[in-house]
Each structure stands twice: as structure tokens, then as C-alpha cells.
Specification:
389 residues, Rossmann fold, nine-stranded mixed β-sheet, six-stranded parallel β-sheet
């Protein structure tokens, strides 16, 4: 195995310990340390009961470990993983260890030509996901991508065109909302009017870089899309969801490579200010999580309402409570803490329902596209930061 292959394998192992991976696979402690784990044929659904198989799905491209969280979500919702394909033999071998029940396809076309497959999942290299999604939709299948699901406005225009023509689902798994239990709970509270009308979200998405485990494409902006397009797509999704905005403008955005000159096409910091027709938002993302933190990142979301506010600590409560999924709510009466670790995660089941019923219960198609459109536009118009230090 050469150095590049070793880095890819290590990257997949470490990325499985992100919020999406750990939440989606709660019964697999070995996954957290990157050890091979076999997925049981009996998988629990979003309600904690065994999920009955309702659709057949496949995976094409697994360059990021988020694919394991994606598979976990759909499986919980009633999907059966039947086949997979990856161009990279070492990635396919690792995936086969996790899912020995799935057939390894000889080519992408073998999956696309299989009429029994209803949904295709992918965490391919970021700038390859949209073209793949177009091919998937043209083959008559629905598609679920890791974020960023689209990296340029040109890709977005083509995806929108083909989605409209084919009427297939193009879903992007914004896992910091869809697969984070505290954020799901916050959605229920906001919908119930617990903090009045939402007027602003502040989303922070710090990450640990893990230089030695990252594959080469991770440092190439053309391939990963830029830090705002990539990481901040989560925060744009949450902004739209919690403020109820269906239109928004980028007020200001900036990006920089402040600490890694050896990777000239990389970005390690980005932030955005935006204004929608339902509220305002601020976003900050970075690759500066220190090794001393017991998590890959202290992801936070603050939701400001007219009658109170909610703060979510997604992955860790530094110096406080153990684990993740922490929610704090302050209203006119008191401040309360809610442990969300036992909340259900409905996205996988909702997506499977949408595949079967041709509905939009997991996420509207326009919301999915608007979140990524805003991320791309903020990335495209961002000013470059140059610090004199």
C-alpha cells in the first residue's frame, strides 16, 4: 500500500468519528476508533424498533467516511444496501468489511442499469458528486449526496435542470441538522413556538484538520469547493430551516489560508453574514480545533427568538457534561437543559418515504438547492484574508 492509499484509509477511519457517523451508527462502538465493524442485518429504525426493508439502495463513491453515516440513516429508515462501487480498490475493500452482505459491483453502470435499485448514495470527491447525481437521476433513480453535494453554480444549474426533467430526488445530507439529535429537538421546540419568532441563527463549525490522514484532494479548492461551500453548507441549511427563509442575500463573506502555507490551494477559515426574508444569520467555520479537545469540533448553534433563545452544543460540552447533543433553552421563565441523546432521528425514514411516495417530507427540493446555492455564492464572492503576522 502506498502513502496515498494509507492516507485515504486513515482519513476514512477518522472521519467516521464525526457527528454524522457516530449518531448514525450508535450501536457500533468499534467504528469510533476506526476498527472494522460488520453491520448487523437487523438495524433499528428511527423509533428504536427493527426497520423493515422497504427500498433497495446502492453506494457509488466513498471518498469520505460520511458515507457510513449516510448508509446508517437510510438503513434505519427501511433501506437495504444491496451493492456498491468505488474506483479505488482500498476504499472498496474497507467498505466491504463493513457491509459484507452487499455485492461489490464491477462498474458504476452495473448499478445504474439495475432497475431494482431505487436510491444511490455517494460521498465521492466533492466536485464529482453533482455530475454523478445527474447520471443517477437520468437512470431513473433518486440520489443522496454527502455535503457539499454541488460545488459550482454551473453544476447547480445542470442539477436543477435534470431534477426538473426527471422528477427524481436530489438530497444532500446536511448531517449537522438532520443527523444531530439536539438540532432535531430544537426544530421541534421552534415549531412549537418555545422562543417566539426566530430572528437570527449563529452557526459555528470548527473542525480538527488531522493533516497526516487527509487525501490530496482535501487540500485542492477546485475539488473540495472551498471552506464555505464545503463545511458551511451545514450552517446555511440550518439558517434556512430555523428562520423559515426561502430567499436570502449574502451581506459579506471572507476566507483565508492563515496557517497552512504548504497547501496553497487550501482554506482554513471562513465566515459569512447573511440576511433572509425570515431572519438574519452569521456563520463561522474553520480547521483550528486543537488536539486537547475530546471531539473533532465544538460545533454550536444559537437560535435567537423574540421570546427566548436556544443554544446547542452538538458534539461536546467543554468542561461540562459528558457526550454530545446538549441543548439549552432560555425563555421568559427560566433556563433549562435538555439531554437530547435519546431523541429520534427521522431523516432516513422520511427520505425512504419520499422515495416510495414521491413526496418531500425529509426536505423540500428547493430548500436543498437554496442552501447549497447560498454556500456557493458566499464562497464565490468571499474576500481573501491576509493577516500580517
Amino acid at each position: 500500500m502506498n502513502e496515498s492509499q494509507a492516507n485515504r484509509r486513515q482519513f476514512l477511519k477518522e472521519s467516521i468519528t464525526t457527528a454524522a457517523g457516530l449518531v448514525a451508527l450508535p450501536t457500533l462502538p468499534d467504528v469510533a476508533i476506526g476498527a472494522p465493524a460488520i453491520i448487523s442485518s437487523q438495524v433499528l429504525g428511527s423509533d428504536g424498533k427493527p426497520a423493515a426493508v422497504r427500498i433497495r439502495f446502492s453506494v457509488i463513491g466513498m471518498n469520505h467516511g460520511h458515507i457510513y453515516g449516510q448508509v446508517g440513516a437510510v438503513t434505519r429508515g427501511g433501506g437495504e444496501l444491496v451493492s456498491f462501487y468505488a474506483k479505488e480498490p482500498e476504499l472498496a475493500a474497507e467498505f466491504a468489511k463493513r457491509f459484507p452482505q452487499a455485492k461489490q459491483a464491477k462498474s458504476e453502470s452495473e448499478i445504474l442499469d439495475d432497475k431494482s435499485i431505487q436510491l444511490v448514495l455517494s460521498s465521492a470527491i466533492a466536485n464529482e458528486r453533482a455530475p454523478l447525481g445527474v447520471r443517477v437521476m437520468k437512470s431513473g433513480k433518486d440520489f443522496m449526496s454527502d455535503k457539499p453535494g454541488i460545488t459550482t453554480l454551473e453544476q447547480l444549474a445542470e442539477v436543477r435542470k435534470v431534477q426538473k426533467e426527471t422528477k427524481r430526488i436530489y438530497s444532500i445530507m446536511y448531517s449537522e441538522r438532520l443527523e444531530n439529535k439536539a438540532t432535531v429537538k430544537a426544530g421541534e421546540l421552534v415549531k412549537a413556538g418555545a422562543i417566539g419568532n426566530v430572528i437570527q441563527t449563529v452557526g459555528l463549525g470548527p473542525h480538527r484538520i488531522g493533516l497526516t490522514s487527509r487525501p490530496a484532494w482535501f487540500f485542492e479548492k477546485k475539488q473540495f469547493g472551498g471552506i464555505i461551500c464545503d463545511i458551511a453548507s451545514h450552517q446555511f441549511d440550518q439558517f434556512l430551516f430555523f428562520t423559515g427563509s426561502n430567499q436570502a442575500d449574502i451581506v459579506a463573506s471572507q476566507v483565508g489560508n492563515l496557517h497552512y502555507p504548504q497547501y496553497p490551494n487550501f482554506e482554513d477559515f471562513g465566515d459569512v453574514m447573511l440576511r433572509g426574508n425570515g431572519g438574519m444569520g452569521y456563520i463561522r467555520v474553520d480547521w483550528f480545533t486543537p488536539d486537547g479537545l475530546k471531539s473533532w469540533g465544538d460545533g454550536r448553534l444559537t437560535i435567537l427568538g423574540t421570546e427566548g433563545f436556544i443554544e446547542i452544543r452538538k458534539n461536546i460540552d467543554p468542561g461540562g457534561r459528558e457526550g454530545g447533543n446538549h441543548l439549552f433553552i432560555t425563555d421568559k421563565k427560566e433556563t433549562r437543559y435538555i439531554d437530547c441523546s435519546k431523541e429520534n432521528l427521522p431523516y432516513g425514514e422520511q427520505l425512504v418515504n419520499d422515495v416510495l411516495n414521491r413526496t418531500e417530507t425529509a426536505m423540500s427540493q428547493e430548500h436543498c438547492f437554496l442552501a447549497t446555492e447560498l454556500a456557493i455564492k458566499a464562497q464565490k464572492q468571499a474576500q481573501t484574508i491576509h493577516l500580517k503576522k
